[in-house]
Amino acid sequence: MARPGVSFAPPPYPYERLDVLKKLAETHAGGMIDCSIGTPVDAPPDAVVATLAKAEGVRGYPTSQGSPELRHAASSWMNRRFGLDLSPDGVAVCIGTKEFVGTTAGYLHLRHPERDTVLFPSISYPTYAMGATLAGLRSVPVAMVDGQLDLESVSRADRDRALLLWSNSPSNPTGALDDLEGVATWGRRHGVLVASDECYAEFTWAGRPRSILEHGTEGVVALHSISKRSNLAGIRCGFYAGDEDVLSFLRSVRQHAGFMVPAPVQAAVAVAYDDDEHVDQQRARYRRRLSFMSEALGAFGLSAPMPDGAFYLWCSKEGIDGWELATLLAERAGLVVSPGELYGEDAANFVRVAMVQPDERLAVAASRLER
């Protein structure tokens, strides 16, 4: 029962709704195989852990925008990976990119109170819409066509009220790649800031990794995370880069709000961004697991094609919806997956399977499916 005078209660956290599936999966000898949440399972680089253990800078307050060492490492990585010419001054850190996704719309609305709408992909990570809700703004899903934003479907009324457009390529959950140049062009044409969530860029299978910053920085912000790239989700660090005016504003307001990544974490993340070899190894692991499970799920009767990016399989089975399919996989194989409805109404007939279990546990799941 709602308390008198209380006008907002947050909805259940999406992944807490999976408890019923976990109970079904746990009935299997050997327990459940949890592929529901994109939590990395493989070891981070030893040098990163060693740097974190030194606890350098732990006594003083870290800078909100990030240490010179981390900003240099992040910009150098962007320049290597995407062929950019990004200065360390064009980078600022955040406490994991989910925090940035969940708060940025509210900060931008302070600057542009006449705009009250956040646009986001109709099949997407739920925090894009929740960030608008937490700021008291409208969230409007944008239809997807062949995995890409159908920006021509956005009504003129919504476009004129739009404060921010989120893009996500490679996509969580579908793995599709968007036309980032087209997205940036649309945003500039209509005066809508584009925030490009690129946290899976290292795991791009169809061609090379891409960033929206390859098409200029005006009117766009790119967002990157160390969580997926280096198996460091637990230390909560990411960065954003792009439009100089927007970055200046966000750095200032975030400094006032007290957002600071701990100094030992910043030192460790700088080491991670300076090393590409461990990412090459992780990329090979994910590609192997995707191929293995795509074949196993296909043999079980699912449509489970290899994605163009990210480390998820986006699966369906004719005649049943995502919750029914997730229940079937939990019952038959002890495999816990995320029903597509968690990512939007348009995704109701799918499930997302994350390749975040060791090879041997995925082999157990495949064996159960085969039986």
Could you please describe the fold and organization of this structure?
The chain folds into two domains: 14-43 and 278-370, Aspartate Aminotransferase, domain 1, CATH 3.90.1150; 47-273, Aspartate Aminotransferase, domain 2, CATH 3.40.640.10. Helix content is 40%, strand content 15%. The protein has 13 helices and 14 strands. The chain has helices at residues 19-25, 46-54, 68-82, 97-111, 127-134, 156-161, 180-190, 226-230, 244-257, 263-273, 277-299, 322-333, 359-370, and strands spanning 33-34, 91-94, 117-121, 138-142, 144-145, 148-149, 162-168, 193-197, 220-225, 238-242, 312-315, 335-336, 338-339, 351-354. The strands form four sheets. A seven-stranded mixed β-sheet has the order 2-10-9-8-7-3-4, with helices on both faces. A three-stranded antiparallel β-sheet has the order 11-14-13, with helices on one face. Strands 1-12 form a two-stranded parallel ribbon. A hairpin with a 2-residue loop joins strand 5 (144-145) and strand 6 (148-149).
Major sheet summary line = 7 strands, mixed
Radius of gyration: 21 Å
| Mean of residue pLDDT values | 96
Q: Uncertain spans, ≥5 residues at pLDDT below 50?
A: none
Strand fraction equals: 5-15%
- Which strand order do you get reading across the main beta sheet? 2-10-9-8-7-3-4
Number of domains: 2
Count every beta strand, where a strand is a DSSP E run of 2 or more residues. Answer: 14
Identify the overall geometry: globular
Considering DSSP H and I runs of 4 or more, what fraction of the residues is helical? Answer: 25-40%
Query: What is the CATH third-level topology name of the largest domain?
Result: Aspartate Aminotransferase, domain 2
CATH superfamily membership of the largest domain:
Type I PLP-dependent aspartate aminotransferase-like (Major domain)
Tally of separate helices: 13
CATH C-level of the largest domain: Alpha Beta
Distance between the termini: 47 Å
Q: Class by helix and strand content?
A: alpha/beta
> Strand-and-helix sequence, N→C?
HEHHEHEHEEEHEHEEHEHHHEHEEEH
CATH architecture of the largest domain: 3-Layer(aba) Sandwich
